[in-house]
Specification:
EC 3.4.11.9, 552 residues, manganese ion binding, Peptidase_M24B_aminopep-P_CS, Creatine Amidinohydrolase, 3 domains, 3-stranded antiparallel beta sheet, 19 strands, Creatine Amidinohydrolase, Chain A, domain 1, 6-stranded mixed beta sheet, alpha+beta
Length: 552
């Protein structure tokens, strides 16, 4: 799945030096909670989440408290909600998968609920047998303590009265506070009330704007190397948000006219105030960037499932199929192998639709002989794959399709060579961009290298993990980092080139683990070359004899 080239995200964070010792904090994959019988047995062990909490806590400033909220419940229509998906940071630190919860971490031990020596507290939604018979089992405070192994747990109704001495903390750290949250009238301790109680008890100013902290971090990380891309974004944010327009640090950078002025503006970093919406995000970005062996095991599984989906779809592809049917095969494979979700909405676009970067409608009724671009990834126990393949439903690439495909493939091969420890994060993109520039010139599609941006408008890599666009610091690559490598060329109809190229969209995306020796392509199981794709499509499919009745 693509990442915009303009900015890798509005969340770009600083590298944080973590000096905490890992001694005694190792963990391994074992069965997680048993709130429901006969669950899978390869969830992350509670020791993993405890290790993550402790590393975050050790990185907190002295005399501080950190607060994280569970993800909101999102309404789909009327009285139907979307399937709940936990906030990845919250899951990373707790393993808790239910809504209406808050995690509090203390730098120094506190007395909470009458218990002394507390450094972590999780407030969960309570058990409710009547509601559980409708919406599923809950852990409750006792279940969370026993199965997730947190030091202190209590019902969320106790959060406001737990005796946390908010006024004693020099700094109060949090991520973006959940916004646009429904207030459930029947629940006095739902997420809406938990956030309101936190704001009141901790004294968070009503006009506090996390966007200011986020943009300050963005300037500190990307302000010197990416000024050309960053300045238009800051201009737009300044026009949209009065708090941004009034911030001296952001505006000093925005108004700098020379490199020396810009360096001075970046270096003049404001001291974090008592209410800090950026430091914890920076620490989590540093932690989540480097995957542990436990995480890599789950990523491998998600990616293996996804590459199997690509293989099976290629065997089944026919020109008379629909985009929706192709999407359905991918997702059927995911469910068959135990993946709970897709990591993101499946992108299945044929012909002109393949030239729409984040096309998600997937409703073309007949593929025809146009290329079909399939950007799909399974989510397995929270970890997302992200694999793209482009194939001809006819089983054979046309000459024009083949030329564009092999140019993208050559760009990806060049990018792979930059996937090694010490390479700059942008190294794979620069390598891919150079090959595509030269190739488009040679094919006569562009007359100047600067025009290539029209046909290759996105970046080549992003981090992969609990989020498909995962957290990271964008420092040089190092072992344990997992990134995508995904060059592409998209030539919509009416582009200023020979019409034979129109409506050809090609993206090839693989998931790469940086190792001590270089890299490992985790998604190599999906056919990638022209010869491999055509050979796979010539094989029989398990669906060849699966015929549904015709609806009248």
């Amino acid at each position: 799945m693509l990442y915009p080239l303009l900015l890798k995200s509005s969340r770009v964070f600083l590298t944080v030096a973590l000096t905490a010792s890992l001694a005694g904090l190792t963990s391994e994959v074992r069965a997680q909670r048993t709130a429901a019988a006969e669950r899978p047995t390869d969830f992350l062990d509670p020791a993993f989440h405890r290790q993550r909490r402790e590393l975050l806590r050790q990185a907190l400033p002295a005399h501080s408290v950190a607060v994280l909220f569970a993800a909101p419940v999102r309404n789909r229509a009327n009285d139907v909600d979307f399937i709940y998906h936990q906030d990845p940071d919250f899951y990373y630190l707790t393993g808790y998968t239910e809504p209406h919860a808050v995690l509090v971490l203390f730098k120094e031990p506190q007395t909470i609920g009458g218990q002394s020596g507390i450094t972590e507290a999780l407030f969960t939604q309570p058990r409710d047998p009547q509601r559980e018979s409708w919406t599923g089992r809950r852990l409750g405070a006792a279940g969370a303590k026993e199965q997730l192994q947190l030091q202190y747990t209590a019902d969320n109704k106790a959060f406001a009265t737990a005796g946390i001495k908010w006024a004693d903390f020099g700094q109060v750290l949090f991520l973006d506070l959940p916004a646009d949250v429904r207030d459930e009238a029947r629940d006095p301790a739902d997420l809406y009330n938990l956030v309101a109680d936190f704001r009141r008890l901790a004294g968070v100013p009503a006009d506090y704007n996390p966007a200011v902290n986020e943009l300050r971090s963005l300037i500190q990380r990307a302000g010197l190397a990416n000024a050309a891309n960053l300045l238009p974004y800051l201009e737009a944010q300044s026009q949209a948000l009065p708090a941004v327009a009034a911030d001296p640090y952001i505006q000093a950078y925005r108004k700098a006219t020379t490199e020396a002025e810009r360096q001075k503006a970046v270096a003049n970093k404001p001291v974090p105030g008592r209410y800090d919406g950026s430091t914890m995000a920076e620490v989590l970005s540093g932690l989540r960037e480097i995957k542990t062996p436990e995480e890599i095991k789950l990523l491998r599984r998600a990616i293996q499932i996804s590459t199997t989906g690509q293989q099976e779809v290629m065997k089944a592809l026919r020109p008379d199929m629909s985009e929706n049917a192709v999407q359905g095969i991918h997702e059927y494979v995911y469910r068959t192998y135990g993946a709970e979700f897709e990591g993101y909405p499946s992108i299945v676009g044929a012909g002109a639709n393949g030239c729409i970067l984040h096309y998600e409608t997937n409703d073309k009724p007949r593929l025809g002989n146009d290329l079909i671009l399939m950007d799909c990834g399974a989510e397995y126990h929270g970890y997302s794959a992200d694999v793209t393949r482009t194939a001809p439903p006819s089983g054979k690439f046309s000459p024009a399709q083949r030329q564009i495909y092999e140019l993208v493939l050559a760009a990806q091969e060049a990018a792979f060579k930059e996937c090694k420890p010490g390479s700059e994060f942008q190294g794979p993109h620069r390598a891919a961009q150079q090959v595509i520039n030269e190739g488009l010139l040679k094919l006569g599609i562009i007359k100047d290298a600067a025009e290539a941006r029209r046909y290759f408008p996105h970046g080549t890599s992003h981090y992969l993990g609990l989020d498909v666009h995962d957290r990271g610091t964008y420092r040089p690559l190092q072992p344990g980092v997992v990134i995508t490598v995904e060059p592409g060329i998209y030539i919509p109809a009416n582009s200023p080139c020979d019409p034979k190229w129109w409506n050809i969209g090609v993206r090839i995306e693989d998931d790469v683990l940086i190792t001590k020796a270089g890299y490992e392509n985790l998604s190599a199981g999906a056919p990638r070359t022209v010869a491999e794709i055509e050979a796979t499509m010539a094989k029989s499919s398990a669906l060849d004899n699966f015929k549904l009745p015709v609806l009248k």
